[in-house]
Amino acid sequence: MAAPPTLVQERLCGACSHAITAQAWSADGELLAMATAGGELLLIDFRAGCEEWLRGERDCSLDVAGFSADDRFLMAAGQDGKLLLWELGGSGVRPIAFDPLPLGGHWLDAAAWQPQGSLLAVGAGKQVRLWDGASRSLRPESQELKGTVLALAWSRDGRRLAAVCHGEVLLWSPDDPVQAPQRCATGSAGLSLGWSGQGNLLASGQLDGSLMLWPDGGAGRGWQFRGFPGKARALTWCDQPGRLAPLLAVASADIAVLWSQQDRGAKGWKPEPLVLHEGRVHAVAFAPGSSLLATASGDGTVGLWDGRGRLQQLLEGDGQAITSLSWRPDGRHLVAGGEQGQWWLWPVTLPPSVRSRPPSPGGFAP
Questions:
Q1: pTM given for the model
Q2: Both ends of the chain: CA-CA distance in Å?
Q3: How far is it, in rounded angstroms, from Cα 108 to Cα 99?
Q4: pLDDT single digits (tens) 168-201
Q5: Biggest alpha carbon distance in the chain?
Q6: Phi and psi for 59 in degrees, rounded to 5?
Q7: What are the phi and psi torsion angles at 217 (to 5°)?
Q8: Alpha-carbon gap, residue 339 to 358, rounded angstroms
Q9: pLDDT tens track for 227-253
């Protein structure tokens, strides 16, 4: 069997003062924001060829960052319970900072911008609050869960929002106040959450080492898959259609598991464990427009896998644990962040698209 082609041959790197906790690309791929455990926020402008510290070192971490769909706003939040916002004027234009917005003193590490819209959802304690970019203000209404909000996810069309806590997933349509919220019971706390591209499948990675999957946009009865070696800390959907559903990747302990739907119903989902890393898998991410999957590990490596679960290339940092990953919207540049503040940017040559074969069954069962 011929060796897979080399996808990465060079890299760009830099450093922050503290562990990198979050990364985000602007929709046009010209801006990259990186947040750290020391409260720093770095903005890199590739078109202008410069970088700027929007926030210097603090004694509290930033844990989430993101650009609005129209690249008009950048948000960040974290330990001090304040929502930070900047208005962007384009490449080479200095961002304008808003006054920090306190949200009840809660640690803020769950926040997500609405795709194709101007709403920012933020988990603040047991509540989900909405900041509206059109009015530049918080909406008065909120949704309350049974426990602390642990993760948020918008459907691809931006019409539905899901929030997870210990014991339930809450789904609702923020722009349709007439429609009542829907609650789906879970047996434990949800740590990661994501909608498939078509919006008809919702996945939640659980604290008890299981994966919850709801068909029909949460309207159907949820399926639960067990057998993971640890907490299901991270998950991601491929944006390319599959035979019946897109590929789903889930990180648990020191492995990632690639799931494909081979037949209808719960028993039609087949797992392919990706065994490579010697440390905890912290992040998983599919390249936009491709089934190429990246996995980041505490052993200081990043694995690149095709849609069949075959390793294409192993990337190495500088020995420190790699804790975050983010693909540029073009799907041809991958950035990773380390626990000691180092970051790496790899240009990636995408291989030809490959259809997934039926993975061999593993030790997972619904």
A1: 0.93
A2: 34
A3: 16
A4: 999 999 988 888 899 999 989 999 999 998 778 9
A5: 61
A6: -100, 15
A7: 60, 30
A8: 36
A9: 999 999 999 999 999 889 999 999 999
